[in-house]
Amino acid sequence: MRFPLAQTVKIASHIIKHKVSRTPKFAMVLQLEPLHTCNLTCTGCGRIREYSTNLKDMVPLEQCLAAATECDAPMVSICGGEPLIYPKIEELIAGLHAQGRFIYVCTNGVFMRKKMRDYLAAVYSPKLEPQLNRLVQEQLVTEKEAEAIRKADGAAKTKVVIRPNTWMYWNVHVDGLEYTHDLIVEREGVFKECIAAIKMAKILGYQCATNTTVYKETDVQELEDMFKFLSSLEVDGHTISPGYDYDAAKKDMAKRLGRDPKDFFLTRDMTRQKFAKIEDWGQMFTIIGTPVYQEFLAGKRELTCTAWAIPTYNVRGWKAPCYLMTDGHYKGYQEMLREVKWENYGVVDGKARDPRCEHCMVHCGYDPSGALGTNYQSGDNWKNIRYNFGSKPKPIQATPELQTLAYNGVSIGKGHLAEAKAAINSPRAAMNGAQSVFQRNGHHDHDEAGLDTTQRDELLAKVDAVRKSEVNPE
Ligand code: SF4
Ligand code: SF4
User: Minimum-distance ligand to the CA of 211?
Assistant: First the structure.
C-alpha cells in the first residue's frame, strides 16, 4: 500500500462519519504551531516574519492538546517555527498519540539527530549494539555520542522521548539538492544535516517524509533528481506545494535581500508549468496528496479552496482564514467556522474572490478539496481509492551518480557562500578585517548541530565593503 493502512482507514472513516452526519465544515489536518521561534531564517518563510514579535511566546502543552481535541482532525502537523525547539515537544507528541491522531513533525532537520540520540539513551540495552555500531560506522553518531548513549543516567532513561511509531512521521523540510536547499534556508550545511537525520531515522525504524516548497527559481529537473535521491534513502512520502507570497515574506524579501518578490513566487500559470509532471511523479514516488489535487496543480481542473479543513492554531488562537493569510484570530475552532465569511475567499471559475487568493494553489487550501469531493467529477472517488490503496512505488537504487547530483554545494566547495568565503579570506579582506566574520575569536561560529551559523547577508555586506575598498583604495 502507498500509505499505512491504519492512516488511510482513519482518514476515510473520518470523512464518511462527517458526510453521513452532513457536517458542513470539519477539520482534516490541524496545523499546530506551538511556537514561532526558529533556528533558521529561510527566504520566503512568512511565519518567522509575520509573528516576529511573538517569538518568545509559546502555546502551553495543555492548550495544544485541547486545540487538537476541539477540532478533532485525524492528523496533526506540528509545525512552527521549529517544533523541536518547543520544550515540551516529546510530551506533545505523546499526548497526541494518546488522542489517537496521526502526527507529522515538520522540522528543518537540524535538531533531529539530537532527539533520536535522546531516544537511544532512554531505551539503550546491549541488544541495540548492532544499530548503534551501524550509526557510528555511517558517521551518523560519533564514538563519543555512542558512549554517552551507553552510559545514560537515570534522568536520560526516564525522559519522555520521541519513539519510532507507525502513527508518526518526521516531515523534513527539503527544498532542493544541496546547493539550492542551503541557499533557500540561507545557511550552508543544513542539507547535509537533514540527509544525515533522515538516514539515522530510517535505520532506527522511524517513518520519514519530506516537504518541499516550489518557487519560481526551482528547476523542475532538479526536483525530479531530488525525489530520486530521497527515494534511494527510502523516504516514506513527500509533500510538495507551490510557494505562496505571504505579505510578511514579501516585505522581508524587498527590505532585507533587496529582491523583488515577483522574481521568487509563482503565479498560477507558472505553478501549472512547474507541476506539469506531478502525476508522473505521483506514480514514480510516494507523493502525499490526492490525485485530484495533483490534477489541479497540473492545470487539468479547478478546485474550490477548503481552507477550513486544514486550520491553524498558534499563540494567538485559530488563525483565519488560512495558514497563509491572517484576517483575524479566534478563540475556538467552531467560533472561527461560524464567524469567517468563507465565501469571500478562494478562486472560483478563474476569478479571485479575494485578490490575495489569486495565485494561491497551496496544499493547505486545496489538497483537502480533492479528498472532500468539492467540484466532484465522476470517477474521483475511485481515483483516490486506487491511489491510496495502490502499491507503494519501489525505492530507486542508490548510485554514485545520485550522490554526486545531491551533494552539489558546500560538500564540494561550491556552496552559495563560496564566493563570499573566498573574498573574505583574501589577503585584502584580511587587511580590512572582514575575516573576523568567519573567525570570531579565532574559531568558527558553530551551533549545536555543528553548522556554520554565519549569515549570508552579513558576509555579502562584508564582501561588498571589501570590493568597494579595492575599487577606491585609500
Ligand atoms: S525552518 Fe521553517 S519555520 Fe524556520 S525559517 Fe525555515 S521555513 Fe520558517
Ligand atoms: S485560496 Fe489560498 S490564500 Fe486564499 S483562503 Fe484559500 S488557502 Fe488562503
Answer: 1
